[in-house]
Design goal:
The structure is a homodimer.
Chain A (H helix, E strand, L loop, with lengths): L14 E5 L4 H12 L3 E6 L2 H12 L9 E4 H4 L4 E4 L6 H8 L8 E4 L4 E4 L2 E4 L7 H8 L4 E4 L6 H4 L10 E6 L2 H13 L4 E4 L7 H17 L4 E4 L3
Parallel strand pairs in A: 1-2, 1-4, 2-3, 4-5, 5-8, 9-10
Antiparallel strand pairs in A: 6-7, 8-9
Helix pairs in contact in A: 4-5
């Protein structure tokens, strides 16, 4: 059973909500999803900023489906909800939205718990093991996956860039949820969604972002990863 | 300064010692280094098994430089020493060899602290942060790097495979040592040695091996990583 023989579900009718849709990673993912024809709902702490972010997004070239915007609770109504907030606000935001993320809703955590000092980036310890496991603890009625950690906001938001040349490592304990997240990644031109293990192995995938930042700094690039032999 | 503009040192005259040279990863790396024309010294707990491993290696096709073998202390006489022992014996082996690994010797740790249960692989906590940082603590007079975590022993040891298609993430706090390790990786056909940060960011690179094993299991492959945009 090789990669291309594993059938991914049809996710073209799903609505994807973005919590933290006004931040660079959230806006970048939203842009790529909207270019891929997915229906995107941008969430923000403020309804007005969420609506404004959707308006800004819809003015960018290549949008196949106009995005909607509102507050984070509004974005939680989507079929799949991506958490793209800064690590500092992660636990509080997720806990606050927990009442909206029930019924087996697919939640995709793409938050990287990183610190920075004069020697560069480093991974922060997380009591639950990872941001994704923290979300899973706070959202017992959701199906939490981890994905989209290594995408460069600079590449995602650049309209001139047609293809996002990397693999998205998707982690999760619910096979159906993971397959849907893989399929969403696969809608973006150039991306593949690759299943990369259970949620207990999410911590190192989040932390690897520190290494990619170190690579970016050394080589002046926007590094991502591809899985070889796949 | 892009990847190919960073000049790597000439390492063709260096001798590379392998601690744990009779294990699958150690033998595999030794084979690839010897095929690339590097002088390899295989170390083992037993002088006889180390010598036998070298004899076996030299019988494989494509060897450019015959390997030597002996005990681990003998392998420590090489210019660069690769630690490729099982995690279980890591601390004890490194501590025992510390008197031989002084004078700024380059030591390359490629050990992955992993556990396995019925749900598959997972990363083990390490008090020092990573196997490589444990080695650095035990070897204050060596220049410890971390590298070669994601190479598949099955691919390395298969004489039919000409190219090892992956990037070796090299971590270290000593720039010159890291460059030499990158250059050694770059001698192997298909491999690139990519600087991926300071030693404090080695833990997630070691732990990522659990994800690659999960990928191998799901897709029936021998997964490695390539850094994109480089």
């Amino acid at each position: 059973m090789t990669y291309d023989q594993i059938e991914l579900p049809d996710v073209s009718a799903l609505r994807v909500g973005i919590i933290g849709g006004t931040g660079p990673q959230g806006r970048g993912l939203a842009y790529r999803f909207a270019r891929a024809g997915l229906r995107v709902v941008l969430g923000s702490r403020s309804t007005e900023r969420g609506a404004q972010a959707a308006e800004d997004l819809n003015a960018l070239p290549g949008i196949q489906q106009p995005a909607e915007g509102g507050d984070n609770a509004f974005a939680c109504q989507a079929d799949v909800v991506v958490i793209a907030v800064p690590w500092e606000g992660h636990a509080a935001t997720v806990a606050e939205l927990a009442p909206h993320l029930t019924g087996g809703k697919i939640v995709v955590d793409c938050v990287n718990p990183l610190g920075f000092d004069k020697q560069g980036p480093f991974s922060l310890p997380v009591a639950e093991g990872s941001a994704a496991e923290q979300a899973a603890t706070l959202l017992p009625e959701a199906r939490v996956c981890a994905a989209f950690h290594h995408v460069s906001a600079a590449l995602l938001t650049d309209p001139e860039i047609e293809k996002i040349d990397l693999d998205v490592l998707v982690l999760g304990d619910d096979r159906d949820a993971a397959l849907q997240v893989q399929a969403i990644a696969g809608k973006v031109d150039g991306m593949r969604g690759v299943f990369a293990g259970r949620l207990r192995n999410a911590g190192q995938v989040e932390a690897l972002t520190a290494n990619l930042i170190a690579i970016n700094k050394r080589y002046k690039v926007h590094a991502g990863v591809r899985v070889t032999d796949l």
